[in-house]
Write a structure and sequence with these properties.
The protein has 287 residues and is mostly beta strands. The chain has a domain at 52-61 and 86-138 and 150-171 and 194-229 and 262-269: Porin, CATH 2.40.160. 8% of the residues lie in helices and 58% in strands. The protein has one helix at 2-25; strands at 40-42, 51-65, 68-72, 83-85, 89-92, 95-105, 110-132, 135-157, 164-179, 182-186, 191-194, 198-213, 218-229, 232-235, 241-246, 249-261, 272-274. The chain has an eight-stranded antiparallel beta barrel with strand order 2-6-7-8-9-12-13-16. A four-stranded antiparallel β-sheet has the order 4-3-15-14, with no helix packed on it. The protein has a two-stranded antiparallel sheet with strand order 1-17. Strand 14 (232-235) and strand 15 form a beta hairpin. The longest helix is centred in the first third of the chain and has 24 residues, at 2-25. It starts with a helix and ends in a 13-residue tail after the last strand. Residues 48-262 form the Outer membrane protein beta-barrel domain. This is Opacity protein. InterPro entries: Beta-barrel_OMP (IPR027385), OMP/PagP_B-barrel (IPR011250). Residues 1-22 form the signal peptide.
Length: 287
């Protein structure tokens, strides 16, 4: 028995240093928690298009007459005989206008609207020359015109860059031109008043500009519009002269306005920031 215990003790003395040495050699690997992935910026999934909008605009416009003519009968004032004549000079002052409309965003690049604009009065000054009682004379003519412009418009949006969306467009419709009475004053002579005429005319427009995203629903719109208005009756008969006709207008407009889109404008949608959160890190357990 004593001998067996001695043998067992000797075995323990031999095993213990070996086990300690082995424990000193083995070190479990250090596993670090994974780094979180950086945020990923993605556009809104499946952006929706198609939505109604309303708009309001203000502008300043400059009108230029493309020509004038009026009918004369017999020995009209100024020495004009029967036939037609025209103003020697014409000038139209600039004026303000206000507009409103309703439209629909068809897709990312195409929209259309119906607009109504009121052009405030543009003052007209003209002159004619002739003979009065055998002597040369000159007349000064004054009037003004205002108008309603009703248009159906289509636009192509050319993409959005840092909130700015340039566009081009065209419109077709009609203008209701309202001329004030024309006052014809001959220097050193008589004054004649011709009743002004009002009538509908064909009109078309070409536009270019850019809109800026103020919010996802609200855009600031700035641009230029050129409008061509067909000719029509300008003033009525008085004292052997008229009716008178204008050959139409070329109108240049600098415009600014706001466009509110119901349901939001996909061109103005902010990108989504999507981040990946890894599952909680649990260190390995060694047994």
């Amino acid at each position: 028995m004593l001998k067996s215990m001695k043998v067992f003790g000797a075995a323990l003395l031999l095993i213990a240093p070996t086990a300690g040495y082995a424990a000193d050699l083995y070190e479990p690997p250090i596993i670090e928690a994974p780094e979180p992935l950086p945020p990923v910026i993605q556009p809104d999934p499946a952006p929706s298009f198609g939505g109604w909008y309303i708009r309001g605009d203000i502008d300043y416009h400059w009108s230029k007459l493309r020509g004038t003519e009026y009918i004369t009968y017999g020995d009209a004032p100024g020495g004009l005989r029967g036939g037609t004549a025209s103003f020697d000079t014409t000038d139209l002052k600039g004026a303000m206008s206000l507009g409103a409309g309703i439209g629909y965003q068809i897709n990312k690049y195409l929209r259309a609207d119906l607009t109504a604009d009121y052009w405030f009065k543009s003052d007209f000054t003209g002159s004619t020359s002739g003979t009065c009682g055998g002597s040369p004379c000159v007349s000064t003519d004054t009037s003004a015109y205002s108008a309603w412009l009703l248009m159906a418009n289509a636009y192509v949006d050319l993409g959005t860059y840092y909130g700015f969306t340039p566009y081009v467009g065209a419109g077709i419709g009609g203008a209701y031109i309202m001329w004030d009475d024309l006052t014809n004053s001959i220097s050193g002579g008589s004054t004649t008043v011709h009743e002004g005429s009002s009538n509908w005319r064909f009109a078309y427009s070409l536009m270019a500009g850019t809109s800026y995203c103020l919010t996802e629903n609200l855009n600031l719109d700035m641009g230029y519009r050129f409008t061509r208005v067909a000719g029509g009756r300008m003033f009525e008969y008085a004292s052997g002269v008229a009716p008178g006709f204008d050959d139409g207008f070329n109108v240049h407009e600098a415009r600014a306005g706001l466009r509110y889109q119901f349901g939001g404008n996909s061109n103005c949608a902010q990108p989504q920031v999507v981040s990946y959160d890894p599952p909680p890190f649990e260190p390995p357990v060694y047994k």
